Amino acid sequence: MHHAPPASLCRLAMPLAAMVITVASGCDRPAESSAPSPQVDRRPANIDPSTLPIPTEPALAAGYDVWINNCVICHTEGTDGAPRITDTKAWQPRHDKGRAEMYASAITGFDDMPPRGDSPDLTDDQLKSAVDYMLFATFGVLE
């Protein structure tokens, strides 16, 4: 003789069955990774120096020469947080402080930039001309 299960067992079995179905339905999905998602570099891409303006005005042309021979790698690749030339968003806070402050940073160093951009033979005037060129290339004018 077969007896029906007690009502209390039926009340317990229904939620348990629902839970098993819910858990089992996720078995065919790949496990979500708990690893942090990779950081996306939202800075502008590396700059091709051949696309930059070469000024005809003598002081800016001299700045271009200093820049292309000493500053080009860090300021086209964004090495160690250096602002990429033409990246107005990165340059604007520096520009807002004024050229005298930017000149001082180029001469004495700033954050990860070593003094004189690790080119100790450059004169103060050469460094200033390189700063002027970067501002010209970034903002289109030198104010």
Helical content stands at: 40-55%
Based on secondary structure, the structural category is mainly alpha
Mean pLDDT: 79
Helix tally? 6
Major sheet description = none
Order of helices and strands: HHHHHH
What's the CATH architecture of the domain at 53-139?
A: Orthogonal Bundle
Tell me, what's the shape? globular
Low-confidence segments: none
For the record, the CATH class of the domain at 53-139 is Mainly Alpha
The H-level CATH homologous superfamily of the domain at 53-139, spelled out, is Cytochrome c-like domain
CATH topological fold name of the domain at 53-139: Cytochrome Bc1 Complex, Chain D, domain 2
End-to-end separation: 101 Å
How large a portion of the residues is in β-strands, by DSSP E? under 5%
Rg estimate, integer Å: 31 Å
Number of strands: 0
Task: Please tell me about this protein's structure.
By secondary structure, the protein is mostly helical. The protein has a domain at 53-139: Cytochrome Bc1 Complex, Chain D, domain 2 (Orthogonal Bundle), CATH 1.10.760. The protein is built from 6 helices and no strands. It has helices at residues 7-25, 58-70, 72-77, 88-97, 99-108, 124-139. Helix 2 (58-70) crosses helix 6, helix 4 crosses helix 5 and helix 5 (99-108) packs across helix 6.
